[in-house]
């Protein structure tokens, strides 16, 4: 699947054009195409089988970009990209990826201070050299130092949703090898950890060398670091490191448990095994020289007197003790979810029409979909002005009538919480909506006390149902806001309001630790994808994975309810 590779090239072309002062319209075209390709589920090479015309029909891919996609698929390069790399030092692109450093700032840093890499930028910030530039004060220097730390962290770990589907494709390709009996994703990705440093794959085979040799020849592989009978390590063309571990079929379960982790969970299991006179490793559970378990994970855990523990719980956060007591939670599963409770249409910044959203929801087997277009405060989102809300609600209702409410589109909105806690729509507009989500998209640096008051005031509004992506974080780009979540959760519970786990891969918000605390306090949790295209509906898996890491059961999740029960809940909140 070449989507991520071409997206990276288009994003780099946009950055380089921006640095060189090219047309902002051309820059925007490349950026939009890069975002679309990154989120696109269908392999671009499959679309390209239909030729230039098929590519032309994709959103954001015009004639010129279609030709560049074909050029890459045929040659592995884009001539425009290669030409620009001769004009722009590669390190400048890395500097431009630091939030707060636009192309003009990067150009000044390069021209006046010789900043041509992240290391040079860090030196200029830490030494105070940037203070010589007009417009650079101490406050800005400190902010850029903080942003640089975020970028450095992001370079080491990636949001799970950026790599999960690529990982699945690698697993599928392994499963298709005739020598492989089993293949699976392991490591932190299997545990649905929000970010991953690399990917861990596992294969069971009695012909390890043949599998390793085939794996390192996969088309996604750029560089091979190691290839042996029990392990292979490669770098993909996207820069991601992938480790393939290989075990014999009789060690499949023990290998899967061992390489899934976490480290702390595995150490606890090994201690438990030693207390029982056993030894556990990737090859099995051993009593002396005899292997007594190993073919399945269930068999491994049973040998230690435990039920199977779901991977998202394996963090040594009490799951082993709960298993010993027979008190493991029954976790919410993807199959329990009956609808998505935050999606966006072409009425704001979404890419799909109401009809396209309804069709996609039907394909997922959903009973309902909450269409929650933005209010106007977020200007870049093209939010719906108050006077247009009745027209949008009417359009949703007409479509429901035409489709006999299958699936049912809920007429909702994602409404901005303004700095003082008031909402971006007046009450008379909110009253027209079936579902109101409130969220923060600006003024992230208010104090802990100010943010807490802001959110509490928003929740007090009788028309509000859900606090959406509560911490407002953006993985790798923006940290969470500071707020008294204990106080916010307590008040939300008293008011009967829900809090959201936004499954979009760059958010995963609420994070698992806060979501677990919300669940412990008895809050209702709403799961969503924050979808801005029909492809994004797949991110519900990430929302569910985060909910599982938070120990949440289906009874705690709002959208495991059927349509009638959900509509009743929406009405009850306002009473």
What is the 3D form? globular
Class from helix and strand fractions: alpha/beta
The overall strand count is 17
Helix content: 40-55%
Q: What count of helical segments does DSSP give?
A: 25
Through-space gap between termini: 50 Å
Uncertain stretches of 5 or more adjacent residues: none
Radius of gyration using CA atoms only: 25 Å
Strand percent estimate: 5-15%
Strand order of the largest sheet: 11-12-13-14-15-16-17
Largest sheet: 7 strands, parallel
Q: What's the pLDDT, averaged over the residues?
A: 93
Account of the protein in words:
It is a single chain. Strand 14 (435-439), helix 21 (448-460) and strand 15 form a beta-alpha-beta unit. The protein contains 25 helices and 17 strands. The strands form 4 sheets. A 7-stranded parallel sheet has the order 11-12-13-14-15-16-17. A 5-stranded mixed sheet has the order 2-4-7-6-5, sandwiched between helices. It is globular. The model has no long low-confidence stretch (mean pLDDT 93). Helix 1 (3-19) runs antiparallel to helix 2 (24-39), helix 21 (448-460) packs parallel to helix 22 and helix 23 crosses helix 24 (540-549). With 575 residues, the protein is of the alpha/beta class.
Helices and strands in order, then pairings?
Elements (H helix, E strand, L loop, with lengths): L2 H17 L4 H16 L4 H5 L2 H6 L6 H13 L3 H7 L4 H7 L6 H11 L4 H10 L10 H19 L1 E2 H16 L6 E4 L1 H4 L4 E2 L2 E6 L3 H8 L5 E7 L3 E6 L4 E7 L4 H9 L2 H13 L3 E3 L2 E4 L2 E4 L3 H7 L15 H6 L14 E5 L10 H10 L4 E7 L14 H14 L5 E9 L10 H4 L4 E5 L8 H13 L5 E2 L17 H11 L2 E5 L9 H9 L3 E5 L11 H10 L13 H11 L2
Parallel strand pairs: 4-7, 11-12, 12-13, 13-14, 14-15, 15-16, 16-17
Antiparallel strand pairs: 1-3, 2-4, 5-6, 6-7, 8-9, 9-10
């Amino acid at each position: 699947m070449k989507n991520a590779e071409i997206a990276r090239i288009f994003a780099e072309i946009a950055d380089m054009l921006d640095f060189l002062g090219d047309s902002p319209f051309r820059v925007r075209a490349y950026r939009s195409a890069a975002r679309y390709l990154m989120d696109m589920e269908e392999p671009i090479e499959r679309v390209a089988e239909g030729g230039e015309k098929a590519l032309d029909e994709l959103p954001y891919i015009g004639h010129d970009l279609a030709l560049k996609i074909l050029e890459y698929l045929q040659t592995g390069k884009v001539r425009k990209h290669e030409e620009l790399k001769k004009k722009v030092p590669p390190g400048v692109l890395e500097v431009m990826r630091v939030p707060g450093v636009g192309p003009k700032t990067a150009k000044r840093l390069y021209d006046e201070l010789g900043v041509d890499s992240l290391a040079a930028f860090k030196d200029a910030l830490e030494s105070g050299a940037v203070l010589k530039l007009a417009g650079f004060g101490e406050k800005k220097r400190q902010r850029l130092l903080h942003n640089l730390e975020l970028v450095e962290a992001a370079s080491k770990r990636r949001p799970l949703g950026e790599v999960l589907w690529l990982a699945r494709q690698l697993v599928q390709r392994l499963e298709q090898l005739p020598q492989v009996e089993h293949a699976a994703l392991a490591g932190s990705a299997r545990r649905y950890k929000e970010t991953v440093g690399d990917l861990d794959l596992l294969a069971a085979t009695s012909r390890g060398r043949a599998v390793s040799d085939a794996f390192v020849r996969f088309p996604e592989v750029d560089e091979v670091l190691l290839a042996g009978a029990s392990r292979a390590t490669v770098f993909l063309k996207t820069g991601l490191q992938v480790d393939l571990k290989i075990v014999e079929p009789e060690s499949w379960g023990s290998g899967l448990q061992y390489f899934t982790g976490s480290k702390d969970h595995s150490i606890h299991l090994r201690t438990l095994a030693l207390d029982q006179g056993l030894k556990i490793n990737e090859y099995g559970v051993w009593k002396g020289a005899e292997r007594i378990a190993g073919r399945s994970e269930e068999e491994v855990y049973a040998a230690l007197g435990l039920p199977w523990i779901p991977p998202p719980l394996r963090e040594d956060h009490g799951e082993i003790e709960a298993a010993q007591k027979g008190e493991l939670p029954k976790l919410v599963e993807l199959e329990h979810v009956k609808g998505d409770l935050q999606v966006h249409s072409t009425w704001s910044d979404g890419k799909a029409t109401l009809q396209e959203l309804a069709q996609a929801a039907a394909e997922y087997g959903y009973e309902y979909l909450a269409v929650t277009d933005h209010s106007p405060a977020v200007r870049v989102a093209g939010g719906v002005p108050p006077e247009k809300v009745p027209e949008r609600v009417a359009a949703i209702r007409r479509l429901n009538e035409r489709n006999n409410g299958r699936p049912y589109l809920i007429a909702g909105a994602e409404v901005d919480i303004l700095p003082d806690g008031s909402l971006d729509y007046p009450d008379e507009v909110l009253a027209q909506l079936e579902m109101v989500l409130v969220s923060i998209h600006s003024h992230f640096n208010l104090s802990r006390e100010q943010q807490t008051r802001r959110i509490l005031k928003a929740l007090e509004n009788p028309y509000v149902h859900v606090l959406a992506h509560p911490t407002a974080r953006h993985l790798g780009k923006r940290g969470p806001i500071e707020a008294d979540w204990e106080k916010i959760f307590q008040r939300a519970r008293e008011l009967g309001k829900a809090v959201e786990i936004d499954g979009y891969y760059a958010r995963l918000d609420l994070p698992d630790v806060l979501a677990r605390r919300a669940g412990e306090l008895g809050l209702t949790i709403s799961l969503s994808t924050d979808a801005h295209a029909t492809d994004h509906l797949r991110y519900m898996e990430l929302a569910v994975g985060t909910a599982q890491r938070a120990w949440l059961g289906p009874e705690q999740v709002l959208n495991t309810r059927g349509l009638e029960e959900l509509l009743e809940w929406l009405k009850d909140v306002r009473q």
